[in-house]
Structure formats: structure tokens, C-alpha cells
Design brief:
With 488 residues, the protein is an alpha/beta fold. The chain is built from 17 helices and 16 strands. 41% of the residues lie in helices and 14% in strands.
Length: 488
């Protein structure tokens, strides 16, 4: 028998696929006797064991039958819908598949995913001087310590550790997080109010699915984090932008008419993307308005640990634990691939959020949670954070000086006191707009990222986000020097 093998994968799989194709095309007819495994092996110059494995798969899937005294035959009846000749006779093989009917949620998600390419690309092309924001310095992370702790947890893992974990997260991690948040962020919450999630994006998705009905209004900063925008739009929310000034999101007038938002999303400790910090007076004003509107406040505290000047302002969740949903993540503090974040919830929201999470993923990876609990509890996290903050402070100074030396008055910096990025507004010497700055910079090997996608209505000025966490000092200086060449 002459068979054409596709050279893809294991040899017995190639033989199986070739025989199946012969059967489905009726070149091997129903009831026809197949060659013996010995004859097939000799014909194809393969081992007999390989031929046996191919026949066993054909038998298991119903394409062939074993007859006592007659060897192996093609199954007497092959379902018509699987036969190539039948499909071709009906014209199905050449027809273009029809578009699937999607639910509204699926349609919204697909539309949002297609729009992500304009400003939320998590893996853009690598450039020599890449100012991509939101990344820590991976080389600073104590990788050897983490691997040692992970290995220790793996070696000591019990059957319980290998089983499904609680959807709300392991108690060991929730306890150390509750203690740390009480000590450093002023949040007096019990471990039962802490829910472990697969990064802050899942946290936002859970909040949207639990609290937002289609067409509900959600108040969001303008400009804002695209991940939050995507999560709430996916839930069917009608987003209302609240302008950001030098003190953060402007609080709506308590007497304003119209439908009141069900939810407010805010990044008060380091507004994304402008970098401004909301002072205590504005925080209290926001909480007072939310109480009057009976709205929940989502506080995304994505990188407030990196603060370089002044004392941290108390978290919103530390001021009002009945109304504020606190979102934290380790992607900026450790490494994004860890995919661990957490929610601190008002007590009444714990059960519904945990129920939604159980449906979504039945629980977050256990060994990583336990390792992180050890990493925090044994002091490694605080030491790592101290070193990273000191290094970032130096890099921030290098970036500020490079912008000053090379760009002068053609660049205006916003929000330089915290986080891992700067928002920088660029101008030509004559005050004109800098067009297509990302493409022009990429030709020079410089990765720049426009702030425009983070607005509902793009700003009139050219703004770029300059991340500096993973860069070296010389890379920052050279990258800004090349950027300055675009402003002449």
C-alpha cells in the first residue's frame, strides 16, 4: 500500500492520519480488508510496532474493525458527514464558514480585543532603547531566593497542597497580606476580606461581572487605565469620564442631575497615566460623594509602593472599608508572570466575589501562593522592595536630568514622584504638535508609547509615557538623546 505521510509528529500518528484520509475519501471502501501490520510495516519500511499503534488508534476511533479470522477491515459504515466525497458533493468543503452567532458579551469582548492594539499591547516589538512602562527591573529580583522557597514548598507539598485550593486563596497568603496592609497602608481588614486573584486584571473583571449590569454607569478617570476600561466595557457598562487635574480625579457635583454611577474607578496613589497623587482632602471629598450616591469605589493601588518623595497618603480603603474595593498586584513589584494579585473587599461583597471567582477558575495556583507567603513573611519582599525603590529613584533622576539636558522647554514632565513611568508632553520649538512620534522614534531604535489611547478624547498635545524600571542609565541617556532629535 502506497501511503503519503505528512512528516508531522510521531511516526505512528503519521501512518494513522494517512490511513484515516484513505478511509474518509473512500479510496479504502467500507468493509475492505486492510493489509496486515507486518505487510504494512514492510511496505512503509517502518517497525511493526509502529503499524500496530496506528491500527489500534483506527480501531479505537471506529474507522476500522477487527474480524476474527479476517484481520482488520475498514468499518462497514462511515458517518456521511465525515466523508470527504460527501462533503464535496454538497459543496461544503469550498464554502466559507459562516460567522458564529456571539452573545452580546462575546461581541463586546471581541470588539475590545480588536481595539487593544491601539494602546494596550503587552508584547510590542523589542527596541534597543525601549521606554515601555509598567515593567519592573527583572534583574533586581532575587531569583535564587524565590527558587529556593518555591523548591522548599514543592518538596514539602501535602496532598492538600496538590488538590484544588479555595477560590478565595490560601489562608497563609491572605494572613500575611492583611497584616502588611494594616501596617503599611492603614487598611484594617481581616484575612477573610482578602481574596487572591490571578493579577489585577482578573480583579477588575470580577468586579465588573459581580456589580455591573449592562448599561449601568461607571465613573472612570479621564485619562484612565485601559485594562479597567476594557473590563467594565466587557460587562456592558456605560463609562463616564471624570477629568483629572493636579489633584487627581475631579469629584462630581453632589447636586448634579442624571443617573448616578453604580461604581467609581480611581488610581489615587499614582494616577494612571498622569502620575498625580490625590491629596487627603480630595480623597475625603470622593468618599463623601460615593456615600451620598450609594456607589462603590474601586481603588487600584497598582504601584504606590514606589514612592520617592514625601510620605505615602493613606489608602482610600483605610478611610472607608464599607464602600471601597481595594485592588493590589505583584506584577510591578516582583514580575508579571507571577500572575498574583489580591482584592480587599467590604464584608458584604466577599461571598459574591468569591462565587464569581470559583466559576471563573476554581482557584489560583497553590504553590505560588504559599511561596509568596513565605517570601513576604520571611522579610525577602521588604528587602527586595527597598533595593528596587533605591534603584528606581536613581533611574528616575537620570531620566529627569536627561530630559532637561536634551529637551529643555520642549518637554513638560507630569507626575514624577512615584511609580515606574513619567508622562512627558512634547512640543516643537515653535509650539507645534509632534506628529507620529512613536513611528519616528521606532526608526531610531527608541520605544515610545503615546498617551492618546488612554483618553476617550485624545488630547491636543503630544504626550508619551516613559517607563524606566528595566533600563540602564546609559540606555536612558541615549534614548532621550535620540528622542530630542525628533523635536527640532
Amino acid at each position: 500500500m502506497a501511503l503519503l505521510l505528512d512528516q508531522d509528529g510521531a511516526l505512528h500518528q503519521q501512518v494513522y492520519r494517512a490511513l484515516r484520509a484513505e478511509i474518509l475519501s473512500y479510496r479504502l471502501t467500507p468493509g475492505e480488508r486492510l493489509p496486515s501490520t507486518r505487510a504494512l510495516a514492510k511496505s512503509l519500511r517502518i517497525s511493526r510496532n509502529t503499524a500496530v499503534l496506528a491500527y489500534e488508534q483506527l480501531l479505537a476511533e471506529g474507522y476500522a474493525q477487527a474480524r476474527l479470522g479476517s484481520g482488520t477491515i475498514v468499518a462497514p459504515k462511515i458517518p456521511e458527514e465525515w466523508a470527504t466525497s460527501t462533503l464535496q458533493s454538497k459543496g461544503w468543503s469550498a464554502a466559507r464558514p459562516s460567522e458564529p452567532h456571539l452573545a452580546r458579551a462575546g461581541t463586546r469582548a471581541l470588539s475590545i480585543a480588536r481595539q487593544r492594539k491601539i494602546g494596550w499591547d503587552l508584547n510590542p516589538p523589542h527596541l534597543p532603547f525601549d521606554f515601555r512602562f509598567g515593567r519592573p527591573a527583572f534583574g533586581d529580583f532575587p531569583h535564587a531566593v524565590w527558587c529556593r522557597l518555591l523548591g522548599r514548598r514543592a518538596r514539602r507539598a501535602s496532598f492538600r497542597d496538590l488538590d484544588y485550593g479555595p477560590p478565595e486563596g490560601r489562608g497563609e497568603l491572605r494572613e500575611v497580606l492583611a497584616e502588611r496592609l494594616r501596617r503599611l497602608r492603614g487598611i484594617e481588614a481581616s484575612p477573610e476580606q482578602v481574596v487572591i486573584v490571578n493579577g489585577s486584571q482578573q480583579a477588575l473583571d470580577l468586579i465588573g461581572r459581580t456589580l455591573v449590569d449592562p448599561d449601568d454607569r461607571v465613573l472612570i478617570e479621564e485619562p484612565h487605565y485601559l485594562g479597567a476600561r476594557s473590563a467594565f466595557l466587557s460587562a456592558g457598562a456605560h463609562l463616564i469620564g471624570a477629568a483629572v487635574d493636579q489633584d487627581g480625579m475631579q469629584v462630581p457635583n453632589p447636586n448634579s442631575q442624571g443617573q448616578v454611577p453604580r461604581l467609581v474607578y480611581v488610581t489615587p496613589s499614582h494616577q494612571f497615566p498622569t502620575g498625580v497623587v490625590m491629596p487627603l482632602s480630595r480623597r475625603l471629598e470622593l468618599l463623601s460623594w460615593a456615600a451620598g450616591a450609594n456607589a462603590f469605589v474601586v481603588e487600584d493601588d497598582y504601584d504606590s509602593e514606589y514612592r520617592y518623595e514625601g510620605r505615602p497618603v493613606q489608602a482610600l480603603a483605610g478611610l472607608d472599608q464599607r464602600r471601597v474595593i481595594y485592588v493590589g498586584t505583584f506584577s510591578k513589584l516582583m514580575f508579571p508572570a507571577l500572575r498574583l494579585g489580591y482584592l480587599v473587599l467590604p464584608k458584604l461583597l466577599v461571598a459574591p466575589i468569591v462565587a464569581c471567582k470559583a466559576i471563573a477558575d476554581t482557584g489560583t495556583a497553590t504553590l505560588e501562593q504559599l511561596t509568596l507567603a513565605d517570601f513576604i513573611g520571611e522579610g525577602h519582599f521588604e528587602r527586595h522592595l527597598h533595593r528596587s525603590t533605591a534603584r528606581n529613584r536613581v533611574l528616575r533622576g537620570v531620566l529627569l536630568q536627561a530630559i532637561h539636558d536634551n529637551c529643555g522647554t520642549r518637554a513638560e514632565i507630569c507626575g514624577a514622584n512615584a511609580g515606574l513611568h513619567l508622562l512627558t508632553w512634547l512640543d516643537h520649538p515653535n509650539g507645534a504638535r509632534v506628529d507620529d512620534v512613536e513611528r519616528k522614534a521606532a526608526k531610531l531604535g527608541v520605544g515610545l508609547y503615546s498617551v492618546a489611547p488612554y483618553y476617550f478624547k485624545p488630547p491636543e498635545r503630544t504626550g508619551v509615557l516613559l517607563g524606566y524600571g528595566p533600563l540602564r542609565e546609559r540606555e536612558i541617556r541615549e534614548g532621550i538623546k535620540r528622542l530630542a532629535g525628533l523635536l527640532v
